[in-house]
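Look over this one:
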Amino acid sequence: MSAYALNKLLREVNRNPAVREHFFRDRAGVAAGFELSDEERRAVLEQDVGALYRLGAHGLILRPFTILQQMPEPDYLAAIRG
């Protein structure tokens, strides 16, 4: 899969309060609505920030996504630096 669907999912969680609320209740349900590879889906469901970044999640979309989940910046930076 391309990183497009992955970035679209993250963007929707970031920008759409209804999607965000649904995501925090049912990650798998939200992820099912996007054409993700198995690896992308696993990274989303497990909140594996390093994998999300390696799979093509753009930093300007990924960081707000992690802020919503209250991930401190040092932890975010360590995750994307692998």
Q: What stands out?
A: The domain at 3-81 is CATH 1.10.700.10 (Protocatechuate 4,5-dioxygenase; Chain A). Residues 3-15 form the longest helix (13 residues). Residues 40 and 52 are 7 Å apart (CA to CA). The chain has a mean pLDDT of 96.
